[in-house]
Each structure stands twice: as structure tokens, then as C-alpha cells.
Amino acid sequence: MDRRKFLKSGLAAAAASSVPGQTQGVSAGEKSGTRETSTLLSVCLGCNARCGNRVTTEEGKVVAVSGNPYHPYNTLGAPIPWDTPLDKALKARGTVCGKAHEMWSYATSPYRIVRPLKRSGPRGSGRFEPIEWDQLVKEIAEGGRLFAHIGEDRVVPGLKELDSDAPLDPSAPELGPKRNGLVFMTGRLQSGRKEFIDRFVKYAFGSVNRIGHTDICGIGFRMGNYAFTEGKAVELKADPWEAEYILVFGANVYEALQPGLNTYGAALAHRRSKGEVKFVIIDPRAQKASAHAHRWIPIRPGQDGAFAMGMIRWMIENGRYNRRFLEAPNEKAALALGNGGYVNAAHLVVWDEKSPLHGRFLRASLLPGGKDNDAFVVLGPDGAPAPHSGVERAILDVDRRLRLADGAVRVRSCFNLLKEAAFQYTLEEYARAAGVEPGLISEVAHEFSAHAPKAAVCQYHGAGNYVNGVPAAYAVAVLNALVGSLQRRGGYLTSGGGAASWKRGVFDLIDFKGKRKPRGVKISREKAAYQETSEFQSAVKAGKNPYPAKRPWFPFTKGGLSVEALAGMDQGYPYKASALFLYFYNPVYSTPGGQRFASTLQDTDKVPLLVSIDIGINESNIYADYIVPDVTYAEGHYGWLSPHAPAMRFTALRTPCTAPLVSATSDGRPICLETFLIDLAKELELPGFGRQAIPAKEGAADLERAEDFYLRGFANIAVNGDVEADDGAAAFVEKNYPAAGFKEILPGRLWKRVCTLLARGGLFVPREKLFKGDAFISKVKRFTLFNEELASTVCSITGRRFSGVPHYAPPLEGDGEYPLILVSHKTALHTQSRTVWHPVAMALHPENHVVMNPEDARRFHLEDGAQVKVSSASNPRGVQGVLRISEGIRPGVVAISISYGHTQLGAGSLRVSQARRVFLGGEAITEGDVVSPDPFLGGGMNPNLLGDLDPRFGKTPLVDLTAGIPDFSSTRVRVEKVRS
Asked: How far, in Å, CA of 823 to CA of 303, rounded?
């Protein structure tokens, strides 16, 4: 298929949807000429930002997409009131980004699969054949010699074999039962489908191994917030609507963020144009926002922590911190200052290596006469120890001996520990590491502190996504504590969470008869301590040094460690996997160094059964034994979406916009994720699915199709949100929404209450209701300069405890053979992987480039437009692309955007029996059993192919030892001209 044919099907729909706002004067539910036109509200999934959308269809095809005017993400944070009548709302405007406009092109890619497939050749050969639905479900459940017809005389384990409470390893019972041999890994996953998958994997089947991909998505900055909030929250960012000064560490605010560029970036641009905010970009690459930035600071990759710690040192040294806020030792004292949260700066920590309490918070119960008082301890204004909750102000900088009930110990305040860490290096040393002048750090620190408390940071992918990223992201987060901007207007804010719960109400979607409790250790070893394993204890008992473990363990982590899950499968550690399910996930393509896992997925001993649920054949599921086709978000995804930070509260509803394009089961249900899990659960006779599987206030309800679960979740939200029935909304929904075809699931009055929600795209709480004066009210009340849990965690490799305070930890150093540092990034029209199916985006930007500073180009004798090879120690063969020379990249650094360089998703040849019936493009892309590739879809290069591998652990992708963060910012490369 050539580029012109590929574009033809998508450009017309994209052009029709290119104008935001009301759709060409056609009202919802009316006819345009002889065509039936519908308009509905949903939530986009072009990226993970969760913007609302208003979708117009004609004859079941999406023809226009604009923004939901009720949704704050589409309206610069100022939506129309939730009670605005629908006729007025249809005339209101809301914006979306370019990715949303390609919804229908994405759904109608000719390379989309619409029928189930079974492998008909060796793994990775690209040979598949259609399989009937009932047979697919039976084979996955039963197992057996499933591939004897192609010469594989092995017994494939079915899920029935794994459905057992027998231990995986009798000598290590803590690993859990055989059920944990099922590993279900997810790519982009949001609430709704997440809970549906968990219902099957965790609570019906009983496996602990439902593992997300948070690590490759942005765990680095999240771990900074995780440490800062003691695990209570990870999504904190500067308030884009009221902050006056924002430090942007590695957050691509005009091109990719959560909230999205349509929200966060647009708000910054709008307020910057009016002189209401200054923002500083700290990034090796001059991202698009640099054009509007107060400063662009081209920092060395992986050195955000050095810059942040330099700022912390300067602010402490020069008294440019908010002393009054830091002295407030409790929630009440902070609230009096206008903050919805306090920081533990004055709380005391036992710092005496002779004491068993070393590194632990001092509790009031240890003071003379402090019986049964578990409060933290501070020194009051008079210098006497007191429970933290009993004083308004506390002494901030403490290092002294204190007499306890059973003797004297040295105690130090959290602020004192932070100060010691900051003063470990000079400002000049921090500046040298960051690659900037010392004066620049002090100038930025002065400006930042001058705007307190309306100064905050926005950090994301680049700030902490590298080895030693936890202390770096923690340091960046702590900057907000020093200026007193926590949980207040214009400051550093958490999300407000959902507006109403989906879990219980009229229906109980959490509990069910026979529900299992997953137990044991995840194959990724996340949230599990090596020191509690039989492996560790056996080594100690035998008198051996138990360190290092065979692979790292990660008790202190947010989780979602997909890289370590795959590495665990590759190494068979701490146990072997029996079955791997991939949902919407392409790790071979999307992971730095992910090509290393191609051999893992190809190996039938390491992954005996491999099942993928997806819309196409990608670089990972080309190794699958079975591929289950899925619906796209245009046709079949349901969900209830809460906001990312900052300071918003809503529950937005995702609902199908058109009829499914996939094939159906014999009883008419679309073949997709939900249908697969329901039928597989019934085949396995698992609880929680099928007849009367959902407890309800009046009897029990069935779970036989997707809508049985999701519409009841919507009903709970309506009930818990006190949403009233609206006859007008019901009429609107029943004219326009495909979900109305299932209204019999809910009693009439309850259905009308759900319609009120659907007609507005969800339930949205006005921002002003989330504040008490300047203070933002949320569940996160306490922030930490010292994290006790982190400080007590022992590294499974070194045997040493991690530091509990932010500190400078240098990234990996390279060698002279590879003199440049590689960074990757997203562009505004692309996300991680599948936007190669967005024809307008590809037409505008058909390939990516190797971006290099002119200084380096001269050094290596390279000219703009040259064809170059980029190689690394882990991939000497490298990747090839076109060089672009730009002042917008730091010397010593090269940048390559992701989303390009595919070898599948239509870019590679396949041999599929009855291909014409399998692919949506039919005869346009097939000749007999051969699927014709489109080289246009393979344009550009994939920088992840260059990612560093770790020789200590089987040459699997490099991760940090604290939290499992994959390394995106340390890979060293060489760039050479390709000789013709």
C-alpha cells in the first residue's frame, strides 16, 4: 500500500474534524441532508491526558471532534457550569489537540485486525491464521499440544492448569501460588478497563501479576512525589492557573504532559501572554515552550538533581526560604498560613547509630511521661520536646542530644538532615555537574523564592527518569516546601480526585461471591523486600553473604515495573512465568533497550503461552501465540476518569461513539478485551463473571457483556454524586449515544440519572469549591523532607540503606568512544507508539531527525541534512536517520523524538491466512495471504533501540536500584556520517 492510498481513507475524516467548536451548524440528533447526524460527549484516548471530547458522527462514522465545554481540560480550566442546559452547551466551545482529530483515522487504519488470530509459524515469523472464537477461548483455557500442526511438540500450559493454590515453589512459599504464573501486562490503561482487568486477573483468577507500565511512562517524577508525600500521592504539579513563577524540569508542557498540552500548556501560554506568569524551562532540549519561557536552561541530561540541590543549598545558605511555613509542625498550623498541607521540617529523627531507633522518627511515647502517645516530636519555641500536634511553631534547625525515658540519644530535625545533604557539595560543584554557571543557579533560586508562595515546579519525564532519579525528583519536589507553596493557590498541588465513586451504590462492583485475594510476590519484585524471602534467609543461615540478590527488589516504589517484569521472565527470577497476556502494550518498541526482550518473548520456555489483546500486529505481539482483536476508544471503551494534578475534582465518562468495527461472537457481542475476559472466566468457571455475578441492592445482576459492568459503574457515580434524572438529557442520550442501546440494564429512573451524566460527559466540581481561602483541601496533609520508610529500606544489591533525604547522586558516566548523550522526547502530534496510524500527523511529519548542536556538528564534521548512524555500546549497529543542526539542543547532547522507526503496525510484511477477512483494509493491503507493507509507516528511527543494557543482570535494560526507574537520560552514543 502506498502513502497516497494510506492517506486517502483518513484525510477526509480528519479534514472534516479540523474545525473546533460546534460542528458545521448541525444540532445533535438531526439529519444533514439524508444523513443521520449524532453528537455525544466522551473522553479522548489519543494520549493519557484525559481531555474531554465532543464527537459528531454521520451514518456511524466520526466526522468531527471538538472539546467538551463542561470539562475543565477543554476550557483552560473555566468550563461552563454543570447545570448549563444542553441546547446552550452545544453552542459553547471547547478545544482539543491534533491527536483527537485523528480518532476515526486511527480506528479505521487498514492494518487494523478485526478477527482473532493464532500463530501458524515460529514465533516472530509473522505468520498467523484466523481462529474461531470459541476455539480460541477453549485452547487458552485448556492448553495442550496447541501447535503440533506446525511441528511444535510441546505441551502449552492452559490457564486451568495454573488455577491452583499449590505453591509455585514449596521451598519459597512467600512467592505465592501457581496462579501467579499468569502475568497480565498493560500499556496505556485508565480507570474502567483497569478495574475490569483487575477483576479478572487479581480477584477472579487470583494472580498478583497485573503489572502496568508506569516505569516507562513517567515513574521518575512520580517517585519524587511518592517520597515527598509518604506514598499518598504522585501527581503533583504547579498550579497553571494561579502560579506566578514555575520551574519546568523536564516537562514537555507544549507537546506532551498530563494534563495535556491542550490544558496545561495552553493555560501557561495564555497567562504568559498577559504577563501573569513566568516559567523557566530546565531541559537539554529547547522544547517549544522555550519560545515563551522566561529562561531556557540547557542542563546536562540526568543532572536535574544537581540543579535542584544547588538551589536548596543557596536558599538555605541565604535564608531565602519560608521559615514561618517550615516551622508549622501540623495541619492546623499550616492551614492558618493558607496551606492545605504541612511539611515535617521540624520533626525530630533519632540519629544515633548506637540506638536501634536510628533513622526513625522520634515518637512522644518515648519521652518521659509520654505513655501511649504516638505523635511525632518537635522542639517547641521554649526548646522543650513536645508532640507535633500541640504547638503552633517549632524550632526548625535541630541537632542535639535529648533525654528519653530510657536514656539520651542524638536527635536531628528533618530540616537539619536536608541541610547537611545540600551542603555536601558546593554551589560550584553542583553547577559543574549540571553544566551551568553557579550564578545561574543562584539567580533562579532568588527569583523562585521572590515569588513565594506562588512559586512551584512542574516536573515530568526528563527530571527523574534515569538511574538515581529518585533523589533527584525528590529534591525537585522539596523546592516547593522551601517556598511554602504546598497545597495552596498558585502553588504545588495534588489532584482533587474523583467527584463520585463507581465502586458501590446501587451495585457492588468490588466484592462478589468467591472473590479471591491475590498473594505472593510479583515477578517484577515490586513492593516486596528481598530480606523477607527464603532465598535471603537461606543464605544467612548458611553463613553466606546474601548480597547481591540475583536481580534488584523494590519494596519502596510506586510500582508498575514492566521492565523488571519482563526481565524477571527472561531470567526466571524469582520464578518462571507460565502465561503472559499483553494488553495494548508494545514493550519491544517502547522500552529503552526493549529490543532485548524480543528474544524473551520468542522463547517458548521463558514464556510458554503468549496472548495479546490489541488492535494491530506490533513489534511485540508478532511473537504472540494468539491475538485477540480489540475495539478502539472511538467504538467501545468505557471508563470513569479522574484528573491528574493540580487542584481539580471530576469524574469524566468515556463512552463509545460508534458501533464496533471488529467481528462479533455468535451471540452478537463485539470481540474485544471485555468479551474475551468474560468468556475465558466462564470457561474457567471463575467467580465474578456470568450469571448473577454482580451483587446489587435488589438481588444480583449478570456480567455477560461489557455494558453490564460499565453502565452499572456509571449508575453508582450518578447515585453517589446525587445526580438527578433529566428527561431532556435522557432524550438527548437516547438519540445520540450507542450506549443507549443497553438502557434496559438499568431501571428507568436510574437510567435517566445516568443520562444526565452522559449528556455532560461526566460530573465536574467547580474549582472554587476545592479551596478554603487560599488553602487547597485534599487528603494529602503531610509532606516530608525526610522519608522514614525510604531510609529504612535496604538495597537488595548493595546491602546498604537508602538515604531518606533528597541528595545529589550522579548519573552514569560514559566513555570517550561514545561521546554524546542521547535524549528522547514526544512531539505534539504523536504519543508513544500507535500514532503512526494518524495519517495527517504522518503527512505533516513523515520522519524524525537526529538533532545536534552546531558545535558538535563542526567537531564531528557533519552537515545539516546528512544521513547519519547513531550507535551505542549496547547497539553498535545503531539506527540511521537524517541530521538536523539546531541551537535548540545543548552541546554534547543529541535528541531524537519517539513514535517513528516501526518495523510492524503495517511497516513489515506478514503472511496471514485469509488476510482479506482479517484486516480492516481487506484487498487494499493484501494479496492472497500476504499483507503488503507500507514503508511510509516505517519512516524515521526508534531511539529506544539504543538504550543501555546492564551487564550485571543478564544485559537487560538498565533501571535504578531504588524504585525500578528505567534509564532514559544516560545512554551514550556516537554519530557518524553514512558513507554512500
From this structure: 13
